[in-house]
Amino acid sequence: MKFSITRLLLQLAITSILLSKPGWSQPNLETISLKEVLSEVAGKNPEILASQKMWEAKKASVSTSWALEDPMIGIMYEDIPNNFDFSQSAYKKYYVQQNIPFPSKLLLQRKAAVKESNAFEEEYREKVREVLTQAKKAYYQYYFGLKAMEVIHHHVEILSNFSKITQTQYMVGKASQPDVLKIQVELSLMNNELLETDQGLAINVAQLNILMNKAVNSPLHLPEEVKKDSLKYELAQLQEMAKQNRPQIKVVQYQLEKTKAQVGFAKWNYAPDFMVKLGRVTSLSGFRGWDFEVFASVPLWFLQKENAELRMAQREKENLQASLNNTYNLVALEVQDAYIRLKTKERIFELYKNSILPQAQQSLQAATQSYQTEKVDFLTLLESERTLKDIQLGYYQALVDYQEAFANLEQAVGVDLRE
Asked: Is the pLDDT of residue 33 over 50?
């Protein structure tokens, strides 16, 4: 058979493609799991820590929100002689004075502060979800970048073998110059892909390091093999889970509870506040007795100040009630959009896994057999090899796209959905 040695070597090279899985493994190298990355990010990410400190500051302010004002102490001299000899004044009074708001006001101030602290806690939890979702996506992109490098490297090796075989055959007049040039062009294109992929990998590593609060050029272990997560919930269940668990919703709920407390506080502004004063009276002859005074504020201008404050608090409550309803709708839309995208990505991945990739492997095998029987030319064989490479890359891209869509759905719902 014409070119039998050439065709045998090509057959061996192509068989190595068909028998190998997409990409190639790198054994005995340290790996870092997604769980380890997320743990690092949750504990060290600056954005998360800043949000946590803000929540802790608001939490610490609760105890001061309903504390009484500092008492005042003083001394008063009466009937001081003309020479201003204070020791000869007829009376001396030592007193302590305390302002005391109406008790219901203090309780409502504390309630408003607690709800505000709760809102900041949920903002912190929302920030954690947001940053962890970024970390998941960066991890998946890091995984894809490495797999792309593996796939391309593998096909470069195959094409290099093709090139050596074809050049040898060209030198003895058994291969055409276009075949030699075509392989060289293909190799140049793949080497260019390697450079671009390597550049993307460096960016992926830098992103993960930044999220973990490390130097951008810190070494990073290889990612573990990514497996497709399964979703066991239907859309209606996810919508209800989001309504109950999404921190973004809870933020507005607590803000609404805070304004309700502020409305109650505004109503109690019609009640008086108090000031109590206790004094100890002495004279030149010694202790004379005690003075005790009580004062109450009179909301004399309630038609202006108190009414305006109440209206303002009520409008703020109405505004937040409308905002809560809008947040419910926006979260429901976000969940539905993430769910539909996830299902679409899942179908694409299953197509690659069960149809497209096997068909591409079969196509290359068929092209190889046809080439051996001289039914197709070398360029057709090369095209089949290139198609398989692109589809292997597409397989990993589809897996990563699905996992990123899964991460988006988890953020939209506000809970982990992995089994």
From this structure: yes
Closest CA to 385 of 18, 3, 19, 6: 18
Give the span between the Cα atoms of 16 and 284, in whole angstroms: 113
Give residue 287's pLDDT band: very low, low, confident or very high (50, 70, 90): confident
Q: CA 218, 220, 222: angle at the middle one, nearest 5?
A: 165
**Residue 39 backbone dihedrals phi, psi, to 5 degrees:** -65, -40
Strand ranges, E, within 165-285: 222-223, 274-283
**For residues 85-112, average pLDDT:** 88
**For residues 182-203, average pLDDT:** 87
The residues with which 386 forms a beta bridge, in sequence order, are none
Q: How far apart are CA 16 and CA 158, in angstroms?
A: 9
What percent of the chain is helix, strand and coil (3-state, nearest 5)?
70, 10, 20
Domains parsed from the chain with CATH numbers? 4-413 (1.20.1600.10)
Model pLDDT, residue 28: 47
Handedness of CA 37, 40, 41, 45 (dihedral sign): negative
* Residues whose CB falls within 8 Å of the CB of residue 107, separated by 6 or more in sequence, listed in order: 66
Examine the pLDDT at 2 and tell me if it is beyond 50.
Answer: no
Contact by Cβ (8 Å): 74, 97: yes
Number of other residues whose CB lies within 10 A of the CB of residue 67: 10
